Amino acid sequence: MEYRKLGNLDVSVIGLGTLRAFDVTDEADLAQRGQIIDNLLANDINFIDSAAMYGAAEAAVGATIKGKRDKFYLATKVRIEGKEPGEQQIARSFANFGVDYIDIFQVHNLIDTQTHLATLERLKEEGKIGMIGVTAMVNEAYPEVMDIMCSGRIDTVQIPYNVVQTEVEEGVLPLAEELGIGIMVMEPLKKGRYVKELKGEPDLAPLKEFGIKTWAQALLSWVVSNPQVSITIPATSRPERIQENALAGNLGTMPQELRDYVREETLRLL
Ligand SMILES: NC(=O)c1ccc[n+]([C@@H]2O[C@H](COP(=O)([O-])OP(=O)(O)OC[C@H]3O[C@@H](n4cnc5c(N)ncnc54)[C@H](OP(=O)(O)O)[C@@H]3O)[C@@H](O)[C@H]2O)c1
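^ thats the input. predicted complex w/ NAP below
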């Protein structure tokens, strides 16, 4: 597994997202998520992203990493209007995870950013969180994201970036590189659509020699082959996907002609 700097952390380039996939409460579902956590460890993945807004996901992460907290960096997000509601939601995230330290706390989709940044800066000073980030997922939000990046108040940014959605290549990614801000990529598989909802089977033959065996690996390798990306966090509810997805973090940089091929093949099948 390749590791890169995300702010001051050394993270595996493939991490785990928990949107929908970890929003579970019953015993059998939690046991399966526990298997996912074990598979992360077996495949040298050390990063998990969640959010207050992902239903039971933070609590499911908390339950399944019990006794293994020191093996993972945890990121989560606050998303609510107002200082006190924000403080309460942040406190619940610590309780849901069952931890007294969270590695990265992000303002989710720029909701009441200035208010929450002040709270998160206080928590960082108190040593309760390690780094501060923001997340955004629409192109119109990127000018504001870049202003916040330039303000010096954040360490990480989480944005969508995949074979089809490449807008961040124009502004956010080069600025992050210039400022030393970590880039966390959400939706590398476009919520799974670019694997599960293609109108035919992608031709993997040109990618075999590079070591790629599945289309998900091609899409993930495409993302992390941009060195401006610190980590991507594909979500999954299925333990067997972890090893498959982790392989994309072992391949090194995909040559540009193969990156072009993966993009064209995806567009052909959408
Ligand atoms: N605004 C924000 O801050 C924001 C917004 C969106 C996402 N995020 C974060 O980014 C993470 C990733 O985004 P996402 O979950 O929306 O989308 P994603 O990671 O692009 O796709 C996740 C979907 O892909 C499927 N999948 C994963 N590995 C696969 C494989 N090897 N083969 C086939 N299907 C596979 C999963 O289904 P299975 O369960 O069947 O494997 C899941 O439904 C989220 O979990 C969340 O942590 C943040």
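Residues 3-269 form a domain with the TIM Barrel fold (CATH 3.20.20.100).
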